[in-house]
Amino acid sequence: MFGPFRLTNSLMGGLLWKIPWRLSRHQKYRHRERLRKVDSTIATLSAALARQGQTMKKVERWKVEMPTEQEMLPKDKYTVFDRKVKRYRKGIHKVPKWTRVSQRLNPPGY
Amino acid sequence: MAYFRITLMRSGIGMPLKVQGVLKALGLRKRMTTVYYPVTPDVAGQIMRIKELVDVKEVDRPLTKQQQREQRRPEKGYHVEKRGSEQTSNYEGL
Questions:
Q1: For the segment B44-64, what is each residue's pLDDT rounded down to a tens digit?
Q2: Of A16, A28, A94, B52, which has the fewest beta carbons less than 10 angstroms from its beta carbon?
Q3: An example of a Gene Ontology BP annotation on this entry (chain A) (predicted)?
């Protein structure tokens, strides 16, 4: 039970990473800020192109398909679909490089 | 003519090679590097690829490296907020 040779998770399995199952409210806040930053970048791009009298398929498609930070449901903001998890949802912070990738849409019905 | 001012806020380390290639093509080697490109669909497409990593603004004219450095430099000299002699005369009055 005690002592230098007690069995702990890290001693038995070696590497042990502990990622909490949910985000803290400060993580959520910073995540929303990042989402808004991407929204503003898209707005800047489309406004600048429109002023030149041009449009771009990639930007237009993003604007049609992707919800903005305000339109997103909390469920989609902070969790993502995962088929291996019970009830098919896991925290978005479990996605690799989650602070630098856009992950806004999930399969319908989940 | 309008320009995009692109600043790399988040590093591209560990991102897919296509993303890192776009960063290299735009000349964004380190974080906080700023580059200027004319507003064209090609550049907009490149920005779309790295939109999570950069800060983009539309500006009228590009700044050279020297001008950017000048903007960051604090003003020369100093200005007097309060004279020390006034302070001491207040104390003497008490």
A1: 999 999 999 999 999 999 999
A2: A16
A3: mitochondrial translation
pLDDT above 70: residue B94: no
A52, B4: Cβ pair inside 8 Å? no
Q: Which residues contact A22 (CB under 8 A, 6 or more apart)?
A: A78, A91
- The stretch B31-48 carries a mean pLDDT of 96
The per-residue pLDDT for A85 is 93
pLDDT at A50: 95
Residue A5: C-alpha distances to residues A12, A20, B93 (Å): 11, 27, 74
Structure ipTM: 0.81
Q: Touching check for A60 and chain B: CB below 8 Å? A: no
Smallest Cβ distance to B14: which of A37, A51, A97?
A97
What 3 state SS string does A34-74 have?
HHHHHHHHHHHHHHHHHHCCCCCHHHHHHHHHCCCCCCCCH
A45, B44: Cβ pair inside 8 Å? yes
Q: Which domains does chain B have, with CATH numbers?
A: 3-73 (3.30.1390.20)
CA proximity to B54, closest of B67, B71, B37: B37
